Amino acid sequence: MARKCMVSGKKPNVANAVSHSHVKTKRRQEPNLQWKRFFLEDENRWVRLRVSAKVIKTISRYGLRDALKRYGASESLLKP
């Protein structure tokens, strides 16, 4: 499975690991992804999504449907 946030689309970044002698090698910076269950009150059911920690904070502040609109994500993520 790809390490990509289902809501925001956040994915790994490529950066340099710099040693003490300043030798640079490529490395990946992985996003902080978590499996999280969100409750849809209007449908009275749970939805399980793999989202970043930043998106969890956004959803807790604005709600799941508003956060999807904010990030431009499809509501098809909420289909059973």
Question: Could you characterize the architecture of this molecule?
Answer:
It is a single chain. By secondary structure, this protein is an alpha+beta fold. The protein has a domain of 44 residues: Ribosomal protein L28/L24 (Ribosomal Protein L24e, Chain: T, Roll), CATH 2.30.170.40. Helices cover 22% and strands 35% of the residues. The chain contains two helices and four strands; from the N terminus they run E-E-E-E-H-H. A two-stranded antiparallel ribbon has the order 1-2. Helix 1 crosses helix 2. The longest helix is centred in the last third of the chain and has 10 residues. The protein is elongated, with a radius of gyration of 16 Å. It starts with 12 loop residues before the first strand and ends in a 9-residue tail after the last helix. The mean pLDDT is 95.
